[in-house]
Amino acid sequence: MADIAMQLTIEAEADTVRDAVATETGIRSWLTPEAVVGEGVGAAHALTFPGEPESWRLLVTESGDRRLVLEGGNGPWTGTVQTYEILDVPEGGVLLRFTHAGFPDQDDAYRNFTYAWAAKFTALKAYAETGRPVTFSG
How do the residues of the chain divide into helix, strand and coil, expressed in percent and rounded to 5? Predict the structure, then answer.
């Protein structure tokens, strides 16, 4: 199994970052503009990306003020788990720690997802720090 793990400091309040990763408005502002997002444990997310034949479905398995866990239900994220953790930084802002675990191999798809998450987190940081949605780029 292969995991993607990254973290970034965001100059924003924890609630702002949490809303960005856990709400429909937030997700549409940095990840994909075509998202249907339920909130709370047991809720479903459906994320549509250009060029993909179907929406990618995720199930919320843990949801709190500082932690969100999603399980992939179909497509290339089947069987993977995404974990977002929001930690305070003493100097201000927060540290977003992210893991996307359970990829079967470090194959081309895994490498593409690693790059895509890094690019998307640049957009997430910009959105959380400014409040301005970031234009989608695939």
Answer: 30, 35, 35
Condensed to tens digits (0 to 9), the pLDDT of residues 13-62 reads 999 999 999 999 999 999 999 999 999 999 999 999 888 889 999 999 99
From residue 5, alpha-carbon distances to 9, 19, 88, 101, 108 in Å are 14, 21, 18, 8, 17
Q: Are strands 81-88 and 67-72 parallel, antiparallel or unpaired?
A: antiparallel
Asked whether the beta carbons of 85 and 97 are under 8 A apart, the reply is: yes
Instruction: Please answer whether residues 108 and 7 qualify as being in contact, where contact means their C-beta atoms are separated by less than 8 angstroms.
Output: no
Output phi, psi for 53, to 5 deg: -70, -20
Q: Spell out the residues 6+ positions from residue 83 whose beta carbon is closer than 8 angstroms to its own.
A: 67, 68, 69, 70, 98, 99, 100, 101
